Amino acid sequence: MLSLSLLLRYLLNISFFTTGLYILAPIYQTLSRLISSDSIWAATVSLLLLHLFLHDYSGSTIKAPGALKNPNCISLNASVVASVFVASRLPSRLHVFALMLFLLQVFLFAPLVTYCIKKFSFGLHLLFSFALMGLTLSFALMG
């Protein structure tokens, strides 16, 4: 059960994270201004493909002997750098902040939430996964 002190600690951490991201948004916006857009988009696609292939989809903590200790960090770093590259092409500080916040939620927090749901109930995990697929397809087919 969540206690009030734990909830306040989570809220404080979230506020620090969000404030830090908002303060750094102008830096993210101008980070790659001198690099051509073609190079940025090519690097972004490459990094997202790297994330796609290196992400640990099993959620398992058991690794084979000799395996990398945490290959997920490479995947996560690739997705965060790709997010910064995309955000650096947006017109305003607020756009950069909103996109970075959304992408960090997708790449950092969504895998943790789905892992916790899967550990709680596999049926709920399947329902959640199919609901997300349906939502994604409905948005894709609307446009």
Automatic annotation (TrEMBL):
Keywords: Glycosyltransferase, GPI-anchor biosynthesis, Membrane, Transferase, Transmembrane, Transmembrane helix. InterPro entries: Plno_GlcNAc_GPI2. GO terms for biological process: GPI anchor biosynthetic process. GO terms for molecular function: glycosyltransferase activity. The keyword Protein transport does not apply. It is a multi-pass membrane protein. The keyword Transmembrane applies. The chain crosses the membrane at residues 7-28, 96-117, 124-142. Pathway: Glycolipid biosynthesis; glycosylphosphatidylinositol-anchor biosynthesis. One of its GO terms (cellular component) is membrane. It is found in: Membrane. Belongs to the PIGC family. This is Phosphatidylinositol N-acetylglucosaminyltransferase subunit C.
